[in-house]
From TrEMBL:
<comment type="similarity">
    <text>Belongs to the RNase PH family. Rrp41 subfamily.</text>
</comment>
<dbReference type="Pfam" id="PF01138">
    <property type="entry name" value="RNase_PH"/>
</dbReference>
<comment type="subunit">
    <text>Component of the archaeal exosome complex. Forms a hexameric ring-like arrangement composed of 3 Rrp41-Rrp42 heterodimers. The hexameric ring associates with a trimer of Rrp4 and/or Csl4 subunits.</text>
</comment>
<dbReference type="InterPro" id="IPR011807">
    <property type="entry name" value="Rrp41"/>
</dbReference>
<protein>
    <recommendedName>
        <fullName>Exosome complex component Rrp41</fullName>
        <ecNumber>3.1.13.-</ecNumber>
    </recommendedName>
</protein>
<dbReference type="InterPro" id="IPR036345">
    <property type="entry name" value="ExoRNase_PH_dom2_sf"/>
</dbReference>
<keyword id="KW-0963">Cytoplasm</keyword>
<dbReference type="InterPro" id="IPR015847">
    <property type="entry name" value="ExoRNase_PH_dom2"/>
</dbReference>
<feature type="domain" description="Exoribonuclease phosphorolytic">
    <location>
        <begin position="154"/>
        <end position="216"/>
    </location>
</feature>
<dbReference type="GO" id="GO:0004527">
    <property type="term" value="F:exonuclease activity"/>
</dbReference>
<keyword id="KW-0269">Exonuclease</keyword>
<dbReference type="Pfam" id="PF03725">
    <property type="entry name" value="RNase_PH_C"/>
</dbReference>
<keyword id="KW-0271">Exosome</keyword>
<dbReference type="InterPro" id="IPR027408">
    <property type="entry name" value="PNPase/RNase_PH_dom_sf"/>
</dbReference>
<feature type="domain" description="Exoribonuclease phosphorolytic">
    <location>
        <begin position="21"/>
        <end position="150"/>
    </location>
</feature>
<keyword id="KW-0378">Hydrolase</keyword>
<comment type="function">
    <text>Catalytic component of the exosome, which is a complex involved in RNA degradation. Has 3'-&gt;5' exoribonuclease activity. Can also synthesize heteropolymeric RNA-tails.</text>
</comment>
């Protein structure tokens, strides 16, 4: 780490946040007319769009599950999303992020409601600034609700990191690149964790503080997700509004 670079000044981070503050978040629902559900999300300088299609017929058919739907998740970073142009197409990292993100969302999807079908989730990163997997999961969760996919609850995702020996919430790019550890999680409103990863080294106590801080961040994000969905559907027919509010509410 560059010893000349200080990540804190008078207890405040380089972007003006305290150690327990999220980056600014903006969520828009229903941004794609041809998708069954969609969501655009800004999380700091991250720009992510998620689209959901389904339930629909599985192709090829030999992939069908007789008793449940399958969930597919494709994460992709656009070539122009990073400072140094990224080679187009999937790579090892995007395949790994796709896998863990699908596993984070699948437990809350009521797949038994639509056997022999598939729910496809596409997440495209338009601009990256650390934490794209968590932003993608958040956007995908809202897009699933927008598509009317039956779920037990929303999923919210956030990361904590270690910078200059201090645990911080929602690391930005320079903190992620030069920090000592990163712990992304995803969880239900009830606190059940569906994703937990760690990059770097933390003591047992540091890991506990990081997870607790990330969970607090997830709770804040959930409130934003829920409000956006309720606001979008509150002007519609009462039964549609009730269904949307239930989808964004506490766990079944």
């Amino acid at each position: 780490m560059d010893e000349k670079l200080s990540f804190f000044k008078d207890g405040v981070r380089l972007d003006g946040r305290r150690s327990d503050e999220l980056r600014p978040i903006k969520i828009e629902v229903g941004v794609l007319a041809r998708a069954d559900g969609s969501c655009y999300m800004e999380m700091g300088d991250n720009r992510v769009i998620a689209a959901v299609y389904g339930p629909r017929e599985v192709h090829p058919r030999h992939l069908q599950e007789v008793t449940r739907a399958i969930v597919r998740y494709r994460y992709n970073m656009a070539s122009f999303s990073v400072e140094e142009r990224k080679r187009p197409g999937p790579d090892r990292r995007s395949n790994e992020v796709s896998k863990v993100s699908r596993e984070a969302l699948e437990p809350v999807v009521l797949t038994s409601y639509f056997p022999k079908s598939v729910v496809d989730i596409f997440v495209e990163v338009l601009q990256a600034d650390a934490g794209t997997r968590t932003a993608g999961i958040n956007a995908a969760s809202v897009a699933l609700a927008d598509a009317g996919i039956p779920m037990k609850s929303l999923i919210s995702s956030c990361a904590a990191g270690k910078v200059d020996g201090e645990i911080v919430l929602d690391p930005m790019k320079i903190e992620d690149n030069l920090g000592e550890a990163d712990v992304p999680i995803a969880m239900t409103p009830g606190g059940d964790i569906t994703l937990l990863q760690m990059d770097g080294r933390l003591t047992k106590d540091e890991l506990k503080r990081a997870v607790d801080l990330a969970k607090a961040g997830c709770r804040q994000i959930y409130e934003i997700q829920r409000k956006v969905l309720v606001d979008r559907y509150s002007h519609m027919e009462p039964e549609i509004c009730d269904e949307a509010v239930a989808m964004a509410g506490e766990e079944i």
